[in-house]
Amino acid sequence: MKYLLKYFKTRKGILALIFFTCLAEAFGTLLVPYFVAEIIDVGIAQQSVSTIITLGFQMLVAACAAALISLISSYFSAELSASTGRYLREKLFNQAQLLTLKEFNGFGTASMITRTTGDITVIQQTIIMAAQMILPTPLIAVAAIVMTAIIHPSLIYIPLTALAVFLVVVFILLKKSAAISFTIQGRVDSVNRVVREALTGIRVIRAFDNTEYEKERMDTAFSAYADNVIRLNKIFAYFNPLVWMIMGLVMVAVAWFGGHLVLLGKIQIGSILAVTEYVILMLTYFIMTAMVLVMLPRMTACLRRVAEVLDTVPEITDEKAETAGTTGEESTARSVQADSKSLTGLQFRHVTFAYRGAEEPVLNDLNFSCQPGKTTAIIGGTGSGKSTVAGLMLRLYDIQQGHILLDGQDIRHMTQHRLREHMGYVPQKSVLFGGTIAHNLRMGAPDASEDDLRQAARIAQADTFIESLEDGYHSHVAQGGTNFSGGQKQRLCIARALVKKAPIYIFDDSFSALDFKTDAALRKALKAQMRDAALIIIAQRISTIMDADQIIVLDAGKIAGMGTHQELMATCRIYREIADSQITGKEADRHGK
Ligand SMILES: Nc1ncnc2c1ncn2[C@@H]1O[C@H](COP(=O)(O)OP(=O)(O)OP(=O)(O)O)[C@@H](O)[C@H]1O
């Protein structure tokens, strides 16, 4: 709720406008029964056509004015609701960018999508309905009771009693429905998660002929959601008949007591009609209010889910980097910085890192540097920690011991933006976005020219296939890049990183889907064109890295060897084993000499 109130504080003007238009609308609406009573009691009673016409005209003006004001009020409410949605969505999106991968995964992608879309839609709908239906209700109620009292004070008990009975009914219904409303949003998450998994994994599901199992999983999620909604609707099935019964009883009461007062000559017959209309109008607004109140527990649940994300303090923040200056850690960092002034590129100094919750560090005391103009390769078995090293270079996680230095400065002491500005990154899993090829390539450099795109594509060996497409660089890319092959996607991701023109490039197993010839041509072009950049190539294939200036062999998170291919073939048993398992002994020997 605090985020909503915080935003509303900045929109006091529109809130005031909504309140005053509601007030005017309520006043205009209540004038109609007043004129009806006047027409009957004065115009018809005195058989004066001109009075009827005058009062009729005034009634028409009041009704039209109320309708117009209602329109204006709806506009303001819609504006407030839409801008609140935009505000919360922007906040959620920005927060998603700040959260560490662990924090993000803690919520889950499906839940983050539901929170950003469905949950905020519920909040928006509730705001718009609350502004239009809850806000005028107290005004209408007070005005209806006052107008009834003006007609005859003894009639006031009718709206008051109706109101009391109605409130008791609503209170009971809300109490019963609140718990169910809270669980419904959780069920929406489950539905989203199951549907998302089933749709994104449709190829695998079909290939494994797992459709029946998936159907059952979906059925379970859908049924759980449907059961809750049905339970909620069952509760509200009692609501309508009860309200109609209260309305019926109100009319009987007005006719009964009003009739007596008419017979006693205390009020006129038109007044009975006016009181009936006041009470019905008041109850109609209360029905609408109740409908919105039903949505309130659901909106509260949605707000709580949004706040859960917004309240999460990201583990890695720039502020933290700045304030770390007061700790002993910083003085060490500063001295490291001073020592390394002459060094450029990226350096790992005694880096030890464990994923949160893991018992053992995944990387242990790593020491190496990646220098500009040189290619550093990292090789090792699966799970040896290669991708983790890439993640640390990008500061996706913070290390527990040691220092990672960029141009001599600890990366925790610079903003994430500045650090990542230095990096061109190709992830292990190719990720493309819906749009065009050009749009994807420009992701890290929005102002890149067509020539820049062509040059990057040439280095990435992607130019031939892009140019063979009918629309070339403006060809459509489906969401996730599903209209391209694995190798094409990898080359587009490589070209995207190259367009950015960064001083450091990290290729995380990015050549694995390329054939040997393309792999070799790409590396040759990279070396020739990116002379000044520090290239970091993570790979499983020895042929991809054997030409590197420096190869780091990782084994269970430790450096098992470091040097050129020739040096490692001579000195590093693990490297030799990898090489032997991949290339024939003869070939390895040839390279080893
Ligand atoms: N987010 C994570 N949370 C916890 N443990 C993780 C996480 N990511 C990786 N690990 C663990 O860290 C170890 C190193 O993983 P990493 O992905 O760095 O290895 P890798 O050498 O790149 O493997 P591969 O060649 O198979 O991609 C593995 O044991 C893995 O289970």
Automatic annotation (TrEMBL):
It is a multi-pass membrane protein. GO terms for cellular component: plasma membrane. The keyword Transmembrane applies. It is found in: Cell membrane. It comes from the Bacteria. Keywords: ATP-binding, Cell membrane, Membrane, Nucleotide-binding, Transmembrane, Transmembrane helix, Transport. InterPro entries: AAA+_ATPase, ABC1_TM_dom, ABC1_TM_sf, ABC_transporter-like_ATP-bd, ABC_transporter-like_CS, P-loop_NTPase, Type_1_exporter. The chain crosses the membrane at residues 52-76, 127-150, 156-174, 235-258, 278-296. GO terms for molecular function: ABC-type oligopeptide transporter activity; ATP binding; ATP hydrolysis activity. PROSITE patterns: ABC_TM1F, ABC_TRANSPORTER_1, ABC_TRANSPORTER_2. Residues 346-581 form the ABC transporter domain. CDD domains: ABC_6TM_Tm287_like. Residues 16-298 form the ABC transmembrane type-1 domain. Its main location: membrane. This is ABC transporter ATP-binding protein. It comes from Aminipila butyrica.
